[in-house]
Amino acid sequence: MIVTTKDLFKHAYGKYAIGAYNINNMEQCMGLFRGCIASKAPFIIQISKGARAYTDKLMLEYVIRAADKIFPEAVFAVHLDHGDEASCIDCINSGFYSSVMIDASSKPFDENVAITKKIVDLAHAKGLVVEAELGKLGGVEEHVAVDEKDACLTNPDDVKRFVEATNCDSLACAIGTSHGAFKFTGTQGLRFDVLAEIQKKVPGFPLVMHGSSSVPQDEVARINAAGGKIEGAKGVDDNQFRRAAELGVTKINIDTDGRLVWCRVHREYFRDHPEGFDLRPIGKIFMEEYAKFIAAKNVKLGSAGQLDSVREFCKAANA
Known about the structure:
By secondary structure, this protein is an alpha/beta fold. The chain is built from 13 helices and eleven strands. Strand 1 (about 20), helix 2 (about 25-40) and strand 2 (about 45-50) form a beta-alpha-beta unit.
């Protein structure tokens, strides 16, 4: 059952966070659904601009539609991740997406407001919801690249003004994370002090944490042992997710970790089966491993076990 992120956020606020997982292919989609059903968790499927362009923008849409029929008990939203104006408008007009993210965070404040408000007005007219971003995360994620020297935390004093000016439905905040597999150096970590100040400015308003893959060190070690060269990768401590949820974070984005699982499975398989060439055995292994990863992550988010309650809440909200 496809629902809006707004309904999911209302149910989750202050109690747990919804996992927002990026997918690029059928295997990731199937693993995601299986993991969320196994852990009885609602979830958000994120499709990036790059994922839409990987084959054709309709490909993932129809994969997701098929998964919705295969897993009728699932409750999830479909979200455009890091959209620009053109991709947001295209997704709004598609009639498939639950929500879109307009990322104009690289622009000056007033320009960010103007672009965001334009997308909000278009989306709200069609019953869709909009995530915006204020502040700049460092790191690289597909077409989004911000040098660490240019990264800046979200200014709590700007948040209320931005939300009121744009009428956006949720806000991605820069609180110390970054995109990619190399999020922190030294003792850097999440700035819960900044997050707490933001929540005070907009109490009850859904906040979003980008760049939140934990970059499991066992995955990195196994990749490197199988011929990889990922040195110094470090992510967010997923034991901190629940604290973030208590401070208003209702959506936590996880992309890199899924890529690491994919990399580890493929590297180990071909190391151990140099004669292999059939894509199906390795695809089956990945789907199983990714489902286990998703289920475990939902426990950390607090969303595990919420599926039945969320379903009833969404039905009542849309009755």
